Amino acid sequence: MSDLRPVIPVVVWPGSNDDRDAQLALQRLGADSPRVWHTDDDLPPDTAAVVLPGGFSYGDYLRCGAIARFSPILRAIEAFAARGGLVLGICNGFQILTEAGLLPGALRPNQSLSFVCRDVRLRIERTDTPFTSRCREGQELTIPVKHGDGCWFADHELLAHLESSGQLVLRYAPGGNPNGAVADVAGVLNADANVFGLMPHPEHAVDPLLGSPDGALILGSLVDAARLSLAAPV
Amino acid sequence: MRATVLVRPKPGILDPQGQAVESSLRHLGFEVGEARVGRLVDVDVATDDRAEALAQIERMCEQLLANPLIESYEIELEHA
Question: What is the count of structural domains for chain A?
């Protein structure tokens, strides 16, 4: 079982720039990770999970992710997610998933109006998800952020709902919120727990040489879950 | 027919751009209250029927031009 390499494609849009890092990290963690172009109508055969990488799709025109969400591949991803398929959005990928309505909330310009590029401390709130199973509850991770529009927003009603349903899986450690996100939210899960988005970049923190190996806990969890899903394909 | 769509951050939504503009205006010596920054989209629609144009632009706003969670929009149609 453990020698199976689950297929986890990484989607590429014009303006994506973290797709190769995501691909390399996933391959090192045991996945087979082809890059797929945004105009493709279908995900590759045997796709076990899909990653929407960071970058600046369509130059962040209008709102970050607002144009990429209409790509043909998004229709395939929506159908895949509706069947329970695992979907991970990183930074711009997270923005695309919120614009597409696959994840709750919206991402606004950073409160500081500055582009933030540095390591942040993060707290894992739940480990019973396909994206955090390699972590310990309450564990703190060090992973970099690099974004201008990472201020996650939900109104009071939505926030209260997400708190009670346990969907706020990843937060900036107290005092370390880099962008003004409501309730220090750094990553959000959907209600069915198969779609996750986060602003920090786990693919940039998969080796001590990069400053931290903590991102491998998140991507490794995804590879584990994708491998398990091969037993029951979606 | 030409339409102008005004997209604004909803009340209560943090608007750091608006705050920066507000602060700059004060530095210039203007006595201003709150400033908020939105977006303006001019769009030509392929119909001269006002009701039809309005219906089309509302769909554009809901699907793309505004994010209803954080933004409100207002449509102005040019006078015939």
Answer: 1
